[in-house]
Amino acid sequence: MTLSFQSRIALLFAALFVAVQALTVVCIYLAVRDNLLRQLDQDLRYAEQAFRQLLVERAERVAGEAGLLVADFGFRSTVTGGDPATIASALENLLLRIHGQRGLFIDPQYNVVADSAGQWQGRPFPYAQALANRDATLTRVWFGVLDGRLQEWALVPVLAPLPVGWVAVAQAVDEQRIARFRQNSLLPLHIGLAELSADSGRLLAASAPEAALALLHSPTNPEQATTVDTAQGRYLGRILALPAAGDEQGVGALLQIKFTDAFAGYRHMLLLAAGVLLLGLLATLAGSVVIARNLSRPLRALAGAGERAVNGDFTASSLAGRSDELGRLADTFVRAAQLAGQLGELRQKDQERRELVASVSHDLRTPLAALRGFLETMQRKAETLPATEQQHFLDTALRQTEKVSRLAQELFELAKLECDDASLNPEPFNLAELLQDVAQKYRLQAEQRGVSLQAELRPELPLVSADIGLTERLLTNLIDNALRHTPQGGRVLLDAWPARGRITVAVRDTGIGIAPEYLPTLCDWDSPLARRARADGGGFGLIVVGKIAQLHGGRLQVESTLGVGSEFRFDLPLADSARTATGKP
After folding, report:
1. Tens digit of pLDDT for each residue in 368-379?
2. Residue 138 above 60 pLDDT?
3. Same structural domain, 532 and 389
4. Domain annotation covers residue 312
5. Is the separation of the CB atoms in 178 and 190 below 8 Å?
């Protein structure tokens, strides 16, 4: 399917707008995404501080309250001289007062003497190294795994007055605590807990297990948030390292935010931007159609001017009055078309001239050859030829010279009419009188041929403005042709009458007529009738007639029927006084 120029312009503007809008949308999305990532990274840093503070502050409070209760004399006496069951009972009383979940008493050899849960009595404490480093680090809060659950440890030494052991209070960091923190947080956080190791780690609890595992097994940068992709979407997260009770494994909290959840706040802005872009696209399509129409209209006008120029109409385009580039282009185009047309006409005329010269040369060769032959015969046999034959040769040679003379005269007249310097000498005159004079001049010739020659007299015929000499030549050619082709007893009639603001002149005869196939090219130099007539020393008469009629702003019209006769018509312009009298423009 071929698109019009207007459609291509509209599609071009629409494509440019769509490309610009798409680039704008991509830039907006990237800007929003980068801004959101920076904002989410700041939010995760704030969440780290809040989560760390929540965990550590509670453990610090528990350690402080436990330290006050452990300093009581009764508790010290119980753990120093009591059995495991008594110590476990004292630990339970301690946990009730500080709202703890589990308590252990550990002797100086790092063995568990009593466990409020009744599971670790007589067993080595799993984080003995933490107790050994306690005095060096002065750290009272650690995180470690006990019985498969992450515990928050508050360690308090028991002095009586020398160290007799430690009280370890454990608070489970489980999914319930994670859920409470998520409820109290203003961010759409997902939290996970894991044991960290050099290779990967082990997930202990998580609100989004798949995302937490992806973050746990991906390379992380402590300075930047890490992005992971899962089947549920994209997550941005950080790993918060917690103080670990053991040296071999670390403990960490995994804080993550789902990108689509965080992006929900920007969704309405993007929808609004999409709506604005859609309206802009519609407006651009409408504007591109208008622009394309305004651009294609002058081009269509130029195309129309070109088509008219091809058909020979060199009238100015509708853009000729414009002062912009299109107007100048239209003027240049019309002038170029006119020059091209004139050049074509010159080439055609030059070709016709060459062919005419060749044809006339051939036509002149025949009578000149005959004339030369007769003259050479008379010269060589002048003494032996009888007088009658000499007279016959002289008469034949004279007729040949008449043919040459007549052909030369018609060529001279035609050349004079075709010459660019030739101009009319119009003057007002009475056409009726001219018709009467020409008819009178050919009256004797008509009588000799036995043909009736008449001229219609119309005294009321207005004056015409024409070249009287050329008009007379036109009439004589037509009358001469009519007389030569009208048999004895025929009739030739001259008439003139006003028609459509001009005077129409007609020459009718009752001669042999002209075949229909000859009528279209009757006034052309290469007409078959003209070639036939040139053999008799003529053939250019009708060409001269047609040229004279054309110089007067008209054309020669012919109607003919074989065996019936012919009618030749042409028209002449009215004189100025006649136009004024008749009211014609």
Report:
1. 777 777 777 777
2. no
3. no
4. no
5. no
Average pLDDT over residues 189-206: 79
CA distance 187 to 238: 14
520 CB-near residues (< 8 Å, 6+ apart): none
In a domain, 416, yes or no: no
Peptide bond into 426 cis (omega under 30): no
- Report helix angle 325-380 to 387-418, nearest 10: 170
DSSP 455-483: E---TTPPPEEE-HHHHHHHHHHHHHHHH
pTM higher than the cut 0.90: no
Considering only CA atoms, which of 429, 418, 413, 421 is closest in space to residue 573?
A: 429
Residues 132 and 73 in one domain: yes
Q: How do residues 482-532 score in pLDDT, each as one tens digit?
A: 998 899 999 999 999 998 889 999 999 999 888 888 877 777 656 666 555
Q: Exposed e or buried b for every residue in 402-421, given b needs 16+ CB within 10 A?
A: ebbebbeebbebbeebeeee
> Do 118 and 184 reside in the same domain of the chain?
yes
How many structural domains is the chain composed of? 3
Q: Note down the domain range covering 131.
A: 1-293
**Phi, psi dihedral angles at 212 (to 5 degrees):** -65, -40
Token reading at 88: 């476990």
Angstrom distance (rounded) from CA 375 to CA 370: 9
